[in-house]
Structures are given as C-alpha cells and as structure tokens.
From TrEMBL:
Pfam assignment, any one: Aminotran_3
Species annotation: Penicillium cinerascens
Superkingdom of origin: Eukaryota
Descriptive protein name: Uncharacterized protein
Keyword Transferase among UniProt keywords: no
Keywords, sorted A to Z: Pyridoxal phosphate
Entry's family note: Belongs to the class-III pyridoxal-phosphate-dependent aminotransferase family.
SUPFAM superfamilies named in the record: PLP-dependent transferases (SSF53383)
GO CC list: cytosol
GO molecular function, one term: transaminase activity
Length: 455
C-alpha cells in the first residue's frame, strides 16, 4: 500500500498527511519494536514522556491491581476521593518543595497550563484585585495547544490560524536565548539583567496592578531546544515578580519531574520556587495520560479565605487509574535513585555530545541539563546562519536516525524570529552508558549523512 493509499484509508487523522507512520507493536527496555520486527531505540521518549522506558512490569501490575477493585471511575468533582490520587499528591508535596503544598491533576500539559492561568486569575479575584488579568509570557515559548495555552505561547505557527482567539491580555518579552541573543561582550549576568529590565518595563507599561502572572518554561523545551536560562536570569525574574506581586508560573511539563537531574528544574536556579508550577509528561512515565498543577500555600490560603473552592474542573481530572500509574512510576524513581542517576548519566551524555557531535561542521550549539539535551544545526557555524526552512535539516537527521534504529525528536516549526533547527535527545532515566554511546554514534552518523549536500 502506498503512503497516499494508507493515509486515505486510515480512519485516524494523523498529523502529517504525507508520511505513513510505522506501527509499534511492543516495547523492550528503552526500545520500541516495529511491526516489521525492527527495534528502534527511543532516545527522546516520544516528546520527552516515557522516562522509564517501555517495559516496566511494576507499573503494569499497579495499573491492573487498580482495575481489580472494579471501580470504573471516581469523579473528583463529587464528594469523593481515592487512595491513588491522595498518595500521588503526598509523594509530590509532603516535603512542600519551595512552599508548594497542593496539587490539581488533569490529563494533558495544555489542560495544566489552562488550569494554572485560571488559578492565577481566581487568586487575584479572591485577593480583591479582579483587574489583575494580564499575563506576560515569552516569545518562542510553548505551553500547549488549547486556546488558553496558546494565548500564552509565543509559538507563531501554532497561533496563526487562531489569531482571532488570542487574548490581548497577554504580551510577550524576549526569551533567554543566549546562543543568539547575548551580546559578544555581554556577561551572563548582564544579559540576565537586560532581560530582567525588559520584563520590569513591560510590567510598568501594562500597569503593575493589572499583571496577574509571568509564564515561562524553566528550561525551554521544543521551541528553543532544551535551553536553560543563563545563571541569574530566574533570580532576576523572581525578584521582579516579588517587587510587583506578580505570580511566577513555571511550566515544567517537559523539563520537570527529574529530567534535568533534580526533581524540579527550578531547584537549580537559586530561587525559592514558583507560585504555580505545571507538570506533565514524565509525571506518569507515559503509561496513562496525566499532568498537574502545583500551587504554593499562599494561593491555597487566598482561595480558602475567599470563595473556599476551586473555580475549575474537568470530568476526568485526577483520574484514579492515571494517578495509580504515576504513584508506581514515582516509587520506582525514588527507590532506584533515578533522579541522581539522571544527573550522573546526564554528565556522560553531555560529554559524549560535546566530544563527538560538538566539533561537527553544521552543529551550532549543544545545550541542556540532566538527560534533556538538544543539538542545534546551522549552515555557518561562525555566523550562526540558519538553514533555509526548506532544507528541513533536523527532520532529515531524524529520518536518517530512524533508518538506523534511533528515534529522536526534531523541531523546526516557525516559532518566531529565530529559526531553531534542532533535535532533542532525552533518553529514559534508566539508559545505560553503552546505550548512550550507541545513541550518540547513531546520531552522529545521521548528521554526517544529512550534512553531505552542505559541506
Ligand atoms: N508545556 C510544555 C513546555 C510542553 O512542552 C508541552 C508539550 O510539548 C505542553 C505544555 C503541552 O502539553 P500537552 O501536549 O500534553 O498538552
């Protein structure tokens, strides 16, 4: 069957109409098994999701055990709760990281973003400042694909069709993209301060009493490619938020839950933490969809002293099955010290990427943290010239990787001013050193092949 015939025949509307997706029939450790029997190392965990790989009998058992209770579903909007949901929130928050003390669980990252925005608006209503409905977000950012999440996402191509729905109550400041935006003679500290001043100016332009919150990914994921901020950036942002009472909302849907080598990526920023944080993807290791919002005690206190409830909810929020899977995943991560391991293996991955891939002619930058890394490609290394989008460089690399048995994620969409042609390498926390070597060597070979017409 040709691709066109397959696409026409399939009743699933796939994202691309020009490619025939390969059918996955099984998982095996960190690999996926295709219908043809071929194995593919899943070195990006889908879009950075399956952080424990694909064979986890303990999670399978936790899910089946949960179903043995014969409870189809518990509506957490009704007067009920369940053990799995309570336990998951305890695991995440019993030590109150950064003062975060309550959780809301929903199903996707985009829903978590929407819930976080609504929570911030509700907070200001409860505090007697209902005019605080303005959000400041960052250009070339991504916080999800629902209309609410797109409103705060500086992702131009994903917003394009829906411009009429985008809120004028959201404005954007520059991201912390040092590779292209930091001046040649500018130190990290000066760059951080410059971005801080831009953020503060924006608060003053809008009027501090109108700004509800600032939304940012702690480590930017798909639009700017595993991009940590320069040291001091988030300290400056946190200080400015505090000065004007603006809520700091950190999106850790892609970078959180251990991926950067600490449970929360913000722990490496020298700040006390966000006021609201979103989590997702690795939270449940991908077995059942789950995401969440963590909120600071002060948010809960305001709601508690005000209307006494949450003005938000979904039918499937805090689904017990998803929470049971996530409890099992989080127990494994804790028992096997996988976050420490992620930090250690991350150093190995970084060293391999820098040694083997860094010197390649068309590789402009390598960046990331823990097991969350990106390689950015450029046509001219010294000038940092981007490829023409038509070259589709990163996706050619992805294709060559797939041919040789490696799954990585490429990202090229038009997200804003800078074309960030990159691939993401974010293998499971269980990856071994020899698997890392294999991943980097397959990636290197794919880059060599893709580079041929350009060098
Ligand atoms: N926020 C970030 C940082 C993301 O990377 C994503 C997805 O890639 C989302 C939000 C949206 O998550 P979802 O696709 O689960 O809705």
């Amino acid at each position: 069957m040709t691709t066109d015939e397959f696409v026409a025949r399939s009743h699933i509307l796939h994202r691309s109409f020009s490619e025939r997706p390969a059918k996955i029939v099984a998982g095996d450790g960190i690999s996926l098994v295709l219908e043809s029997g071929k194995k593919v190392i899943d070195a990006s965990c889908g879009p950075s999701v399956s952080c424990l790989g694909h064979s986890q009998p303990e999670i399978t058992e936790a899910i089946t055990n949960h179903l043995k209770n014969d409870i189809a579903y518990v509506y957490s909007g009704s007067p009920y709760t369940n053990g799995a949901t309570e336990e998951l929130a305890d695991i995440l928050l019993s030590e109150k990281p950064g003062g975060l003390s309550k959780a809301i669980f929903v199903n996707s990252g985009s829903e978590a973003t929407d819930a976080a925005l609504k929570l911030a608006v509700q907070y200001w209503h409860e505090r007697g400042q209902p005019q605080r409905t303005h959000f400041i977000a960052r250009k070339q950012s991504y916080h999800g694909n629902t209309i609410g999440a797109l409103c705060v996402s500086g992702h131009e191509s994903r917003r394009e069709f829906y411009k009429d729905f985008m809120s004028s109550n959201v404005t954007f400041v520059d991201p912390c993209y040092a590779y292209r935006m930091k001046g040649d003679d500018e130190s990290d500290e000066e760059f951080a301060q410059r971005l801080g001043r831009q953020f503060e100016d924006e608060i003053l332009r809008i009027g501090p009493d109108r700004v509800a919150g600032f939304v940012a990914e702690t480590v930017s994921g798909t639009t700017l490619g595993c991009l940590p901020a320069v040291p001091g950036y988030f300290r400056a942002i946190r200080d400015i938020c505090d000065r004007y009472g603006v809520l700091l909302i950190l999106d850790e849907i892609i970078c959180g839950m251990g991926k950067t080598g600490t449970m929360h990526a913000w722990e490496q920023e020298g700040i006390r933490g966000p006021d609201i944080q979103t989590i997702g993807k690795a939270l449940g290791a991908g077995f059942v969809p789950l995401s969440g919002v963590l909120l600071h005690q002060k948010i809960f206190d305001a709601l508690s002293a005000g209307s006494g409830g949450l003005a938000h909810g979904h039918t499937f929020q805090a689904h017990p099955l998803a929470c049971a899977a996530a409890v099992a995943a989080q127990r494994i991560i804790k028992r096997d010290n996988l976050i420490e391991r992620t930090a250690q293996m991350g150093h190995k991955l970084e060293a391999l990427l820098r040694k083997e891939i860094g010197p390649m002619a068309l590789v402009g930058d390598i960046r990331g943290r823990g097991l969350f890394w990106a390689v950015e490609f450029v046509l001219d290394k010294s000038l940092k010239t981007a490829f023409s989008p038509k070259a589709n460089f990163c996706n050619q690399v992805v294709k060559h990787c797939l041919d040789s048995g490696l799954n990585i994620l490429g990202n090229l969409g038009h997200t804003g001013e800078y074309q960030v042609d990159h691939v993401l390498v974010c293998p499971p926390y269980t990856v071994t050193e020899s698997e890392l070597e294999e991943i980097v060597s397959l990636l290197m070979a794919a880059i060599v092949k893709t580079s041929e017409p350009f060098v």
